[in-house]
């Protein structure tokens, strides 16, 4: 019971924000319309139930006039029912897409805000496959919430409506056992309750493992899809390493988990279907078995028997909502758990920036320098210290070369200054409004027109076509300058050296105040690297440049040199040399 209340609390937390959002008016109106349509459909069911009595009595009495009237009455009710059913579905789907649009945007904003997506990975993100959470689980949550919510409402209202009818029919058609009348007030209601209770207990006993199986199903499917995407994205390296057998074995292993989980679901679903199908079939004849003795004792007519069977069926279906919707409920529960885990992972990533101790990045309008004070960078999970840095200053127009052993934390220093690495303590002061840009060894290009890919993340149209073409040509790719309108997967299509040249072109276009180059020219030969650095000095004379690199030739393009040097069990940032003018 406690688990059910906890789950409902999560559902409330996931649901209520939309109905309080800027789209709340449309959402509430659509929800009210769906509910009103459902209540109207239940009311028509009640009218159909009463019609059953009159129609079958007309048949039994061979009353032609009543027969024709009841057929006309049925046709009118059926037309109204069809119209309500169609528009209820239409409004339900309309509400779902509006709700999904809002919830998807909300999750995207929270996931991408302030580098949350990056920190979630660093923290060992328990919410695996965030793409699946946003694309699939949001859709399933809304669809299942609406389906189960409307179904439960219908069951409750139907139960309330038909219990009264069935209770009254119990008095008109008393219980007969072995030819004797037995007085049990509302016995038809109690019979429906007992029947539904037995079905519910058996259904839960057989079907409860489906919750975890559905949870695992989504995770295994997402892992398999992600692995396929990884092979596609890294096709060149796999081909060059002849890694196809290894990838084949890994993918077969991933799919093996999908298949094994599916077999488990099949087995459990087979058992559950045996129960629910048998339960539904017995439910068809059960009311006739219960009420037929009174009918054959001539206590009521054929119409009364048919109305009793119809009312009993409605009450039984309402009480059996848990039985018929069990598989949906199991999937819904697993979706809720996944979205709740995703929510918690987002919150944990956000707290990593705000909950002390953290590396604070503080804007300062007094100087144009970047100052690093009492900085201690740590790994997020183990808490192990990577390096320390204190009283280090980056002045405007500086050219600094950062060196150090692999794994000493050079890239982490860049991340800390950029505000993407909060794990540790200390302060990084940056000029108010300063624009920072970091270029990694493998730059990212979206699948888009080349012009948009190079100017990313600027909005299309920020730079003229002529300006983009000029910079790309200056970076050493004159042939690429003629392909600005071509759309392609540039990270997969271009060599790493070409990607790095385009990354330099991006930096020149954006003209940041501080440019961090994390081995951003490592795939270029030395003459090409020299050309790039001369281009940066020429095109970005006012930009401060800090480079990570291992080539000795890089010293010629920098005025200062920092190094991460071994100091006991950790590394310490220090200035090792100043280049003479």
Shape: elongated
CATH H level, superfamily name of the largest domain:
ABC transporter type 1, transmembrane domain
The CATH architecture of the largest domain can be named as Up-down Bundle
Computed over alpha carbons, the radius of gyration is 35 Å
Tell me the number of strands.
15
Approximate strand percentage: 5-15%
Report the CATH topology name of the largest domain: ABC transporter transmembrane region fold
Mean pLDDT score: 86
Tally of individual domains: 2
The percent of residues in helical segments reads 55-70%
Note poorly predicted spans. none
Largest sheet: 11 strands, mixed
- Main CATH class of the largest domain: Mainly Alpha
Terminal CA distance: 77 Å
Give me the secondary-structure category.
alpha/beta
């Amino acid at each position: 019971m406690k688990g059910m209340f906890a789950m409902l609390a999560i559902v409330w937390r996931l649901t209520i924000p939309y109905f309080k959002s800027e789209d709340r008016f449309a959402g509430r109106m659509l929800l009210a319309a769906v509910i009103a349509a459902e209540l109207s459909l239940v009311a028509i069911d009640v009218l159909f139930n009463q019609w059953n009595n009159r129609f079958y009595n007309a048949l039994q009495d061979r009353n032609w006039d009543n027969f024709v009237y009841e057929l006309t009455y049925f046709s009118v009710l059926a037309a109204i029912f069809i119209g309500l059913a169609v528009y209820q579905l239409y409004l339900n789907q309309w509400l779902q897409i509006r709700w999904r649009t809002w919830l998807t945007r909300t999750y995207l904003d929270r996931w991408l805000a302030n580098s949350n997506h990056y920190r979630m990975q660093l923290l060992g993100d328990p919410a695996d496959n965030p793409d699946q959470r946003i694309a699939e689980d949001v859709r399933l949550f809304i669809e299942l919430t609406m389906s189960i919510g409307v179904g439960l409402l219908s069951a409750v209202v139907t139960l309330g409506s038909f219990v009264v009818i069935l209770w009254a029919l119990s008095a008109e058609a008393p219980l007969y056992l072995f030819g004797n009348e037995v007085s049990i007030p509302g016995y038809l209601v109690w019979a429906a309750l007992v029947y539904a209770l037995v079905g519910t207990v058996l259904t839960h006993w057989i079907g409860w493992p489906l919750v975890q199986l559905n949870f695992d199903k989504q995770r295994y499917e997402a892992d398999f899809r992600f692995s396929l995407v990884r092979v596609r994205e890294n096709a060149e390296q796999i081909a060059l390493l002849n890694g196809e057998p290894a990838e084949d074995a890994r993918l077969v292993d991933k799919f093996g988990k999908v298949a094994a989980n599916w077999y488990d679901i099949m087995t459990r679903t087979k058992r559950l279907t045996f129960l629910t199908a048998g339960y539904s079939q017995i439910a068809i004849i059960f009311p006739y078995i219960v009420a037929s003795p009174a009918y054959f004792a001539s206590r009521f007519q054929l119409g009364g028997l048919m109305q009793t069977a119809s009312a009993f069926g409605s009450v039984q279906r309402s009480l059996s909502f848990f039985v018929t919707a069990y598989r949906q409920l199991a999937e819904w529960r697993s979706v809720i758990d996944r979205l709740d885990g995703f929510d918690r992972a987002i919150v944990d990533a956000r707290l990593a920036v705000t909950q002390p101790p953290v590396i604070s990045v503080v804007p300062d309008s007094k100087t144009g320098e970047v100052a690093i004070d009492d900085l201690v960078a740590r790994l997020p999970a183990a808490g192990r210290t990577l390096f320390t840095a204190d009283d280090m200053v980056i002045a405007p127009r500086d050219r600094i070369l950062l060196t150090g052993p692999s794994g000493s934390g050079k890239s982490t220093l860049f991340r800390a200054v950029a505000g993407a690495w909060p794990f540790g303590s200390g302060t990084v002061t940056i000029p108010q409004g300063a624009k920072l840009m970091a270029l990694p060894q493998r730059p990212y290009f979206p699948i888009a027109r080349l012009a948009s890919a190079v100017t990313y993340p600027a909005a299309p149209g920020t730079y003229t076509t002529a300006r983009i073409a000029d910079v790309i040509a200056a970076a050493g790719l004159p042939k690429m300058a003629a392909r600005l309108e071509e759309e392609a997967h540039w990270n997969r299509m271009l060599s790493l050296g070409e990607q790095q040249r385009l990354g330099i072109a991006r930096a020149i276009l954006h003209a940041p105040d501080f440019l961090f180059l994390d081995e951003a020219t490592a795939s270029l030969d030395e003459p090409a690297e020299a050309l790039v650095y001369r281009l940066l000095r020429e095109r970005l004379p006012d930009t401060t440049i800090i480079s990570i690199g291992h080539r000795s030739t890089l010293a010629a393009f920098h005025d200062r040199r920092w190094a991460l040097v071994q100091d006991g069990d950790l590394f310490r940032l220090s200035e090792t040399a100043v280049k003479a003018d």
